[in-house]
Amino acid sequence: MNRSDREERVRRLMVAGPPVLPPDLAAEAVRRGARMLRRRTYARRVLWLLLCAAAVVFTVWALTARPWVEPPSDTTPPLTGW
Amino acid sequence: MRSRHAFDDVPRAQEFRAYVAGAGGRLLHTATLLTAEPRDANPRAQRLLTLALARTYACWDRLHGEDPYDHTRRYLMIRFALSTLRYGGRLPFRPPPGGPLAGLSPQERLILVMRLHEGIGEDQTAALLGLPAERVRAVQNRAMAVMLRPAPGSAPAQGARRHGAVMTGEAR
């Protein structure tokens, strides 16, 4: 018995008696899938919100602290009585 | 803010239901072969299929022309493979006898179903499971040898020939 014959016999053993699809399976899949979508959308929304909040906080901090301005020197004593 | 109904909107759900009505029977058959449950008592296969279909529904708008059947089937296979991996290659339950593949291990069932029932190519099967193609072929040969083994109690000459078949099947 060659390989394709054996494959055909095994295939025939497997196709016998397909099960009956329960009628509420599609509805349950839609319910779960919709919940999955809803969660994904909420998660995406929360992440965007966090990103925006971080950007705003950084801008405010940069404008108040001005980290690019050279800090006034406090190692040299003030020049007086010259 | 979109309403709650935006997630189960009518056209998508209708398309999806039509798809399940067309392909669901075959997919459930595949799932039932994987779990080796009898055809009229297959709660685990139904659960596996429901989760795979839910995922396809969630990705429905992003399929971009991809066959939804392929999508569901791939997730079904991956999920089954992962669930057996988690329990050391065995299932966390003992399936009730009745399915045609009940005498095989989960990996043998998976490969036999993918190769023969679904007709997925050897290389594609190997890629999906992360196994070398030779290993897929060896497991398939072993599984076919178990499936075609004559029923116990038949003539001993057949048993000797069957032993030879198993040996050559594993040598390949």
Automatic annotation (TrEMBL), chain A:
Keywords: Membrane, Transmembrane, Transmembrane helix. The chain crosses the membrane at residues 46-64. It comes from the Bacteria. This is Uncharacterized protein.
Automatic annotation (TrEMBL), chain B:
Residues 101-145 form the RNA polymerase sigma-70 region domain. One of its GO terms (cellular component) is DNA-directed RNA polymerase complex. InterPro entries: RNA_pol_sigma70_r4, RNA_pol_sigma_r3/r4-like, WH-like_DNA-bd_sf. Keywords: DNA-directed RNA polymerase, Transcription. It comes from the Bacteria. Residues 152-172 are annotated as: Disordered. It holds the Pfam family Sigma70_r4. This is DNA-directed RNA polymerase sigma-70 factor.
